[in-house]
Amino acid sequence: KTLAKAMVFSEFGNPRDVLRTASYPLPQHSDNEVSVRYLASPINPSDINQIQGVYPSRPPFTHDVSPSKPSAVAGNEGLLEITGVGKNLEKLYSPGQWAVMASTNLGTWRTRNNLAPNQLIALDKSAFPSIVEAATLTVNPCTAYCLLKKIVPMEKGDWFIQDGANSMVGLAAIQLAKHFGFNSINVIRNRPDVDQLKQQLYSMGANVVITDEELMNRAWMKENVPKWTQGNKVKLGIDCISGRVATEMAKYMSEGATMATYGGMSRQPLAVPVSLLIFKNIHFHGFWVTKWKSENPKEYEALVLEIQELIREGVLRSANTKLIDIPESADGKSFYDTFLDAIEQHGKSIIQF
Ligand code: NDP
User: Fold this and answer.
1) Which residue in 83, 89, 167, 268 could disulfide with 243, CB within 3.0 to 4.6 Å?
2) How many structural domains comprise the chain?
3) C-beta of 169 in contact with ligand 1 (< 6 A)
């Protein structure tokens, strides 16, 4: 039996209070399973919300990894390598192959596991410039793709406006939009080195990058939006932040346009001016990739493979991520400490096992 380690929780709460390391012997895989080693697992905002108990999708608490207390392994996204193949699966998989998770709530903040075929989507590792692109493929690029393609029919030359443009979803939306021929107005928070960040977004394919403070300047926006869009429609809003920024963005969308809110990073509600509803017929929607995946598993698998090809072609690249190493020999305390430090850092951390 191999010894595995995982970050687990048995009750909901603040990650520092409820997470703990579990070390457990992993049984030999069955004839209908593969054994896997996790290569890298990101820490996404929804993973934290799940531990806090404020996320609608909850993993089951079981005795699988912690006989003393029913527990769930944290984390939903991750890249794994197949290390052993059950007798009945030898035609489907081979050791060394990469795969990602076919659904959520499978617990990816762990070193090893045994999985059934319906829990994985196999990748072609030659498509990926690094493990980062593969480890972060199933949540943010899939969300960006769905937001651009499934909310309203967008045609080449159409515009969208998005806040949180430097989030992982935002960066993927910028790159995919360039590939699809859509134009983007991108809102980021002001900061001391804002020109550097603006430059980075332009280099990825953004058409316009503005700060939240510039967005609030109505006279300046009213003058500039028509200059940028040259009479083309702003058909879509993509909202990661909610609150005042989202309200303000909606004012620059064309008549009949739709705003899709997918995140609430400001923790503020979205106030909708009545005039936007009555006189401009702006539609307000939400989007949740977890629900979309669970309702469309075949389409989701096809999307993962399409995004793999976009990564191979160089359309999509990861940026602004921190890869944090945990050696397999790490003891329980340093496993916990490394995870907690990563959780409490600002920005996107990916744990490399
Ligand atoms: P990232 O960590 O990559 O990005 C977070 C973004 O939020 C950055 O742009 C950051 O900007 C901004 N931000 C952080 N704190 C605040 C704040 N207090 N006020 C305003 N902006 C803030 O995250 P992801 O791209 O992984 O996720 C972004 C959001 O999208 C999360 O809420 C996540 O849950 C959600 N999401 C939703 C999905 C869905 O299906 N609905 C799927 C995927 C993600 P700055 O650099 O200025 O701090």
Assistant:
1) 268
2) 2
3) yes
